[in-house]
From TrEMBL:
Record has Cytoplasm as a keyword: no
GO biological process: lipid biosynthetic process
Localization per Swiss-Prot or TrEMBL: Membrane
Record domain Fatty acid hydroxylase: where: 208-338
Subcellular location, principal: membrane
Pfam family, one: FA_hydroxylase
Protein keywords: Membrane, Transmembrane, Transmembrane helix
Protein known as: Fatty acid hydroxylase domain-containing protein
Amino acid sequence: MTDQLRAKFENLELNAGLGKISAFISMSLGLLGIFGALCFLFPSVLTMPELRPVYSKHYDIFYLSLIIGIVLSVIFGAFSSIVRQNRYGFYGLCLALIAAILGCGLIKAPTLPSLPFYAGIDYFILTLVILALIFIPLEGFFAKNTDQKILRVGWVTDMKYFMFSHVGIQLFTFLTVMPIQYWITHLPNNPIVPYVQAQPIWLQFIELLIVVDFVVYWLHRAMHEVDFLWRFHAIHHSTEYMDWLASSRLHVVEVLMTRFLATLPIFLLGFHTSAVFAYLIFISFHAIFIHSNVRFRFPYLRWLIATPEFHHWHHSSEKPAIDKNYAAFIPLYDVIFKSVYMPNHLASVYGTVGYKIPNSFIKQFTWPFKKYIKKLRNRFDHSSKP
Ligand SMILES: [Zn+2]
């Protein structure tokens, strides 16, 4: 995508009456329709093995959802392009047409054998649809920053992060969980494990919140205080607009590091799988919620659990808020380790201070390495001089 086109997309604002909202809905549904149709055509490589039995059992429901999505994409695209004369509506119609061709089985897909590697495109579609259905209305009705558009500056970049982390779920799990699992099997039995597993699931769930959050607190603090780590974490802080999608902006090195260190205590202490699954679903949802553009302040809960108010201050570019509120879930850690900042008003300006972080997904990936590549280059230049 050219810079001009990207700028156009990122600055695309939702204004009623111009056909942009319907064009956006049409394009989104058209794109999701294409991804969904591809999942039907190549399930062995594009869907998660854990979810495949659900798809076969409820095949009709999923296929009907695909058709409804494509039909809605056509309706919104036609309204936008014909009634409102918006060319993005026409693009939506084109996407819907491609999805329809793929989805109606007009193209016969070759049968692929079940492969050991897959892309979680289905996981991406399902989570995107569920989260969009929850957070877009929530931010619409209870917006903290009422002027902020759904398609604010940087949404395309954040959507790429969202897609990358969901489609690549197997790769992330493989790189973080597998080494730990391998390592654990070679360790002597931990005497604490039977005591942990003897406890009820709800208690293990609470313990997971306390233990993992302690590890995440110190890792997060290290990412702010150690320059090498900060370069990766600065990408997450570069967003100037807080919303549910902004939570996805995480450099791949940070994702791998956090998942690796957060998974360690879970395996070392041997928590029950049910407690771990419940914890993972809860904490993933909570992480998105605390980034969202909502004005809830939770007067009684705000010191007990991390709220959007608490985490928005962490992202604030105001001087007193810099390097504060590291806890992902338990603000008490910030109180104990003296890094809390919670004034009476809400945070309003966000972004990385001191660095100009590029806007594009690829440039953000290479940005943390630039300083070191430059150093190496300088050293090489000096040593090659006679
Ligand atoms: Zn941070």
